[in-house]
Design goal:
about 140 residues; Cytochrome p450-Terp, domain 2; 6 helices; about 0% strand; globular; binds coenzyme A; EC 2.3.3.16; citrate synthase activity
Amino acid sequence: MEMLLEAGDEDGLERLIREKLARKERIMGFGHRVYMRRMDPRAQLLKETLAALVAQKGDPEGEKLVRMCQRGEDVMRAEKGLFPNLDYYAAPVYWVLGIPIELYTPIFFAARTAGLVAHVVEQHAHNRLFRPRVLYTGPRGLKP
Ligand SMILES: CC(C)(COP(=O)(O)OP(=O)(O)OC[C@H]1O[C@@H](n2cnc3c(N)ncnc32)[C@H](O)[C@@H]1OP(=O)(O)O)[C@@H](O)C(=O)NCCC(=O)NCCS
């Protein structure tokens, strides 16, 4: 989010990204150990959420954010073949919702606590090592 604010608009973001890449710096919000060569499905969902929220609010600043994010995505795909990760679209969603930047990481992490606690409980029940890439076996396709 700080990068988007620093950039100001879509041309500014493209410039910033190109400058950083020329200096061999990493661009925040891109790359992922697992989803390196395709879009993280959670990022895609948040991208759609951002567009829907902005349309609902009719907010011109939000519309600019949508255009900026798309430009950044296009530049990174063309230059590095990298796709946005979850954080790239979570940040502007939180911003449009009016959440202070310093709360972004705690909010993201709060959603993880149920899963982390479940792992602790499972570990206690069957004290054997298990791998971090778990296989989901629960119900699918549930409506919110
Ligand atoms: C998430 C992350 C740590 C995954 O790293 P990784 O799986 O170890 O991937 P690597 O560090 O091996 O990178 C592979 C290549 O992609 C490049 N790359 C990866 N992420 C990049 C990024 N965000 N910007 C520019 N280049 C990137 C690396 O420079 C490397 O290129 P090289 O082979 O020419 O050296 C990494 O993508 C990153 O630092 N992203 C930016 C920070 C970020 O968004 N963090 C939040 C993620 S939850």
